[in-house]
Amino acid sequence: AHRLRVFQVQGKSPYLTDITGSTHVFAGETGAAAEPMGIGLYVRERDGAVFAIVSRKGGPRHGYLAQYRLTLSPDGKVDAREVRRFGAFSGHQEIEAVCADDALGYVYYADEGYGVRKYAADPDAPSPGKELGVFARQGYQGDHEGIALFATGRTTGYLISTEQVPGGSRFHVFGREGSPGKPHNHAEIAVLQGTADETDGIEAASGNFGSGFPTGVLIAMNSKARNFLLFPWPVALR
């Protein structure tokens, strides 16, 4: 059976400790519907509960993603308990990238070849299975891949969506807060041209990371060289 793996970071040690407990995912499924692909972690602010939101290689039109609450067992292992399945799927390709916004309580995922979908991240929220919005529907020639959050404040910043392109993936930037009076209407602000090849996953962080990255960094997977490329965050978008 497929499962999540959990590792503990030990300070400055270069080694990780495996603390995986009972973490099987997509119980009762077979084939592509049982194969986990992407994962996003969500920390619920009101009580600190930690959840893993997991996508898979294949799935139904409704309920494509599964959400698991992660808890620490008495023996120091991390267990995962399924709390819901949710999420619409276009049926075009697959869903891989998942990103949660802890402060605002939303989860975003990339429906490849269709767009980015938005739901409440808290399984106990009112109508948690209701789709709140869809964006990034236009301007893509490559697949919708990695998603990242670039925070400029507790509830401000940008959402970044990867357009997978051979030799030069592009990164579409959307406002995190949505539009005035329409928090689920995320308009595109900019498109950043990179040099990473056929990017899947990305990550972003704001802050001063030295002379090369004074306002933040965007990290992108680079398929051809099997490494990661780091790009300084544009000052104009800070």
Report on the structure:
The chain has 238 residues and is mainly β. The protein has two domains: 1-135, 6 Propeller (Neuraminidase), CATH 2.120.10.30; 141-238, no CATH class. Helices cover 0% and strands 47% of the residues. The strands form five sheets. It has a four-stranded antiparallel sheet with strand order 3-4-5-6, with no helix packed on it.
Secondary structure: elements and pairs:
Elements: E1 7-9, E2 16-18, E3 36-43, E4 50-56, E5 62-72, E6 78-88, E7 95-101, E8 106-111, E9 115-120, E10 133-135, E11 143-151, E12 157-164, E13 170-175, E14 188-193, E15 202-206, E16 216-222, E17 227-232
Antiparallel strand pairs: 1-2, 3-4, 4-5, 5-6, 7-8, 8-9, 9-10, 11-12, 12-13, 13-14, 15-16, 16-17
Short description:
The chain contains no helices and 17 strands. With 238 residues, the chain is mainly β. It folds into two domains: 135 residues, TolB, C-terminal domain (Neuraminidase, 6 Propeller); 98 residues, no CATH class.
Keywords, separated by commas or semicolons:
17 strands, 238 residues, 2 domains, mainly beta, 47% strand, single chain, four-stranded antiparallel sheet, Neuraminidase
Architecture per CATH nomenclature, i.e. the level-2 architecture of the largest domain = 6 Propeller
**Residue fraction in strands:** over 45%
Using the CA coordinates, give the radius of gyration.
18 Å
Largest sheet: 4 strands, antiparallel
Topology order in helix (H) and strand (E) letters: EEEEEEEEEEEEEEEEE
Which superfamily, in CATH terms, is the homologous superfamily of the largest domain?
TolB, C-terminal domain
Measured distance between first and last alpha carbons:
44 Å
Number of domains: 2
- Mean pLDDT value: 96
What is the name of the CATH topology of the largest domain?
Answer: Neuraminidase
Coarse morphology: globular
Which spans have pLDDT < 50 for at least 5 consecutive residues?
Answer: none
Helix content: under 10%
Strand order of the largest sheet: 3-4-5-6
- Top CATH class of the largest domain: Mainly Beta
